[in-house]
Amino acid sequence: MMTGDRDAAVRAAARLLHRRLGIEVPEHRMSVLSSELDHLGGPDGPGAALERLLAGEEAPWDALIDVMTIPETYFFRQFAHFALLREVAIARHRDGRPCRVLSAGCSSGEEAWSAAAVLASITAHPRDAVVGWDVSERRLRAARRGRYGAWSLRAGLRGHERFFVSADEGQEEVAPALRPLVSFARVNLVGPLPSRERSFDVVMLRNVGIYWSEEVAQGALLALAELVASDGLFMLGPSDPGLPRSSPWEHVIEQGARYYRRAALPAVVAPPRVPANAPSRPAGARPAALQPRERPKRATRPVPARDVFDDVRALADVGRTADALALLDGVSAPSARARLWRGILLLDLQRADEAVRVLRQCVFLEPREATFRQWLAHAYEAAGLAAEAARERRNAQELMAG
Ligand SMILES: C[S@@+](CC[C@H](N)C(=O)[O-])C[C@H]1O[C@@H](n2cnc3c(N)ncnc32)[C@H](O)[C@@H]1O
């Protein structure tokens, strides 16, 4: 294929990705898109990959989503939102109402299962539900499977350990009692939303809008806000684009939780003040009509203590990357996890070559951890090693599929 044809196919694929999914491909990532299209198109090059995309084949779409968005998620990420969800659910149950949660852009399901564990940890309502939507079938398969390695669990289960059971290879699996609460579906958040789904008490759209262009994000956010119950909350990640100022929503940031509520309404929940591992049952009588959901047996495993990585994360979250790195220097006999943190922080500091070195050690220590390979791919990309980045992404995809 001539260079001009190649470029035209790559740019057409970028436009398609934007038109269909809202995902923007910035100029500096065109080479990454190009090498993924090379791989998908085989000997016939990016033009053939474009044909596969236009024909709506699932695998190439999933591959491009993997390359253009970071499949980064973990249990109880931005914990303040889950403390707030707990408050909302307690208030709903007190009024005899269910609590329905939407995890929009749920990726491999950690956010949705975290929300389900919060709901299950308080009094149950038979119509409580958590719905997870994502456009990537590959990620939804992992979400439905509900089995997670150490990296997904790196912030701990925050007092919800009893809703998970130990599985092979040191993984944790969602306990059977949690499964009826949660369903996953393939939904394109920038397309028409499923019309049967109405009214969620909490909608989480966290770390998703960051990939969308501004005009796409505004439309999608307004459509999702329509799904929020009149006294519900719309929770966004710290860097996600927000609703237009002219919309009838009040933007609130309190105790580390960013969310919107309808401006005309008084506050429906108090700010989060429940400790992470508070007793599972709230005070007060439960409406007689509500039967408690069967609970799994309380696990004997202890709640993990706060460790150095909590402090590293806290520093990184407020932009004190160099301090976080200095803290890691004090870790003796660094584990794969410590090396991963070091790699991520080095990337933040734009020290790509060093990040590559550390993340390669990390993958050497934990070769079956897909997320580690994803980060190595990012480091390769940042260091200008596009072919190595593409190879590592494919390794990660195979592990995720496996
Ligand atoms: C970084 S993950 C966020 C996971 C989780 N919400 C969290 O904060 O940990 C971003 C997810 O958004 C999904 N996504 C991006 N554009 C989408 C779209 N148009 N429709 C549905 N999902 C989309 C990606 O597939 C990916 O799984």
Provide a compact summary of the structure.
With 402 residues, this protein is of the alpha/beta class. Helix content is 44%, strand content 13%. The chain has a seven-stranded mixed beta sheet with strand order 6-2-1-7-8-10-9.
Which terms would index this structure?
402 residues; Rossmann fold; seven-stranded mixed sheet; binds S-adenosylmethionine
Summarize the topology:
Layout lengths: L2 H19 L8 H12 L3 H10 L3 H11 L10 H16 L5 E5 L5 H11 L8 E6 L2 H9 L1 E2 L15 E3 L5 E3 L7 E5 L13 E6 L8 H12 L2 E9 L12 E6 L2 E6 L45 H10 L3 H9 L6 H13 L3 H14 L4 H13 L3 H16 L1
Parallel strand pairs: 1-2, 1-7, 2-6, 7-8
Antiparallel strand pairs: 3-5, 4-5, 8-10, 9-10
The structure holds S-adenosylmethionine.
Task: Characterise this structure.
By secondary structure, the protein is α/β, with parallel strands linked by helices. The protein folds into 3 domains: 3-68; 79-262, Vaccinia Virus protein VP39 (Rossmann fold, 3-Layer(aba) Sandwich); 308-401, Serine Threonine Protein Phosphatase 5, Tetratricopeptide repeat (Alpha Horseshoe), CATH 1.25.40.10. It is built from 14 helices and 10 strands. The protein has helices at residues 3-21, 30-41, 45-54, 58-68, 79-94, 110-120, 137-145, 214-225, 308-317, 321-329, 336-348, 352-365, 370-382, 386-401; strands spanning 100-104, 129-134, 147-148, 164-166, 172-174, 182-186, 200-205, 228-236, 249-254, 257-262. The radius of gyration is 22 Å and the shape is globular. The chain binds S-adenosylmethionine. S-adenosylmethionine (SAM) binds next to loops.
